[in-house]
Specification:
Helix content: 25-40%
Strand content: 15-25%
Structural class: alpha/beta
Number of strands: 7
Distance between the termini: 44 Å
Radius of gyration: 17 Å
Number of helices: 8
Strand order of the largest sheet: 3-2-1-4-5-7-6
Largest sheet: 7 strands, mixed
Length: 234
């Protein structure tokens, strides 16, 4: 059984990019991130990608002209991010680092992306404090987290809890969701990011979206399994 977040991501790094097939949950995350960043180039801007993984979000920002710094706790993920940036000829610094104790100076970044990270870390308050510290005044953080208000999310977690209990009696691959440490309602997330201001929010349910009516329903707060928030530092 995978015992730590780091060992889990090290073990899946070689196949992680396969999750980003069209219409998948992971591909939709990048589509929403792109939309929240907005139109226009980011030349001469600096961006920090926390939990960069294999570099999908980092490269999306780098293609807009930003100078990107990606960090992750998984060395194997970081290696793949470096290779992906090099393959596209994009500048970027990728390193193994702990988001709860960033080495960056105060007010160093115009943008921080933190996509599906806070639910995995030991102390989310420490990471959030670091995000606020390293953002420039007027800078933005785009964060995604599991939506605790979602009825679909509650059903999903119930299934994984049963699966986890069965592991005591039969050999099963571990449910990765059971390694996640927390979920958030929108109000809980905003409280943790005080004094940052909400600019935009998107709820979504990923693979369940198949037609316009279902898609509209799955973007509702009570159904969307994930939420993205764009926040601005005063």
């Amino acid at each position: 059984m995978v015992k730590t977040t780091q060992s889990f991501f090290d073990s899946v790094a070689h196949s992680w990019d396969a999750n980003y097939v069209p219409r998948s949950l992971f591909a939709q995350r990048m589509h929403i991130l792109d939309r929240l960043i907005g139109n226009g180039e980011m030349k001469d801007q600096t961006a920090l990608d926390i939990g960069c993984g294999t570099g999908m979000a980092s490269l999306l920002v780098a293609r807009r002209g930003a100078c990107v710094h990606g960090i992750d706790i998984s060395e194997r993920m970081v290696e793949r991010a470096r290779a992906a940036a090099a393959a596209e000829g994009l500048p970027g610094l990728f390193e193994v680092s702990d988001a709860s104790c960033l080495r960056a100076s105060d007010a160093s970044f115009d943008l921080v992306t933190c996509v599906s990270v806070l639910e995995w870390v030991d102390n989310d308050a420490d990471v959030i404090r670091q995000i606020i510290r390293v953002l420039k005044p007027g800078g933005r953080c785009i964060v995604s987290v599991p939506n605790r208000s979602s009825l679909l999310r509650r059903c999903e977690m119930a299934v994984f809890r049963v699966r986890s209990m069965l592991e005591r009696f039969v050999s099963l691959s571990p449910g990765y969701l059971m390694l996640q440490k927390r979920q958030y309602t929108l109000s809980e997330l905003l409280e943790r990011f005080t004094p940052m201001r909400l600019q935009n929010v998107v709820f979504y349910a990923g693979p369940f979206e198949r037609n316009s009516y279902v898609q509209a329903a799955m973007h509702h707060r009570l159904l969307g399994m994930m939420l993205f928030a764009s926040l601005t530092k005063p």
